Amino acid sequence: MSSNKTWLQLVCTASKKHHELIETEMESAGALSITWNDAKDDPVLEPLPGETPLWDHLIITALFDADTDLNPLNQKLTVNKTSWDIQNVETEVIQDQDWERVWMEDFHPMRFGDNLWIVPSNYDSSEVTDIQKASNPTTILLDPGLAFGTGTHPTTALCLEWLDQNPPKDLTAIDFGCGSGILAVAAIKLGASEVVATDIDPQALIATKENMSRNQISAEKIPCYLPEEMPENAVDLVLANILCGPLLELFPQLSALVKRGGKIIISGLLETQKDDIINTYSSKFANFEVKQLGDWIRISATKV
Question: Considering the entire predicted model, what is its pTM?
């Protein structure tokens, strides 16, 4: 897209109860995209697969072509301001940007454990002084694209730290909920023979394949599947950085995917959810170890 392209953006605050009516009017006015954000810092922590949970109070943002006449939409929102619980309707002209590249400018090399480094794909790792000083660094080039997973979230950081401290040399593994593929790529870089990557989001599989290519990892090393298409072969190591609800629901499947004597690494958990996970998984696993970072935890255990 041209760097001098302009757009019209309309932003309003409203309650969840009326968001569909507002979005219908935005779509009728020609909205190219509509996004929601939390207006009052109310967390939504446990969406189930396929759900799109919303906060009680929303900031609704619609993007339009620059030549769109927004007067009729503004009038409609004004007339229904009280009945639809609308506040703070604002319209502005914005300049187009390569948003993903702008975000990447703030994504810097990070170390996990002693020797594992995640480096954004727009960096030259040879110019990163700290990596040059490391005795035996393992470097991963990463561009998360539209999929989650950079290492900046505590649960991802905890999983990367575990891999650094327990290199899966010659082991088979599954990255369940692979996101950007960061854990799968790290496991291969640290010696795993094969890592199956799976995610309910097709965009995650695309991002994983792109990050494999950036790190010169062949397709047979990290085969990618949607969950319903994934082989059910048991492996030495399962990495499951998802959420507590799905982890509890998926216990039968995840436990069956780990060989006897193999390891499962569970994250995406708050400290308050620790007991629920351990109580559920203790029928198939032992030697539980818990590591905490902020409010988040990682649990590792051995299949018995």
Answer: 0.66
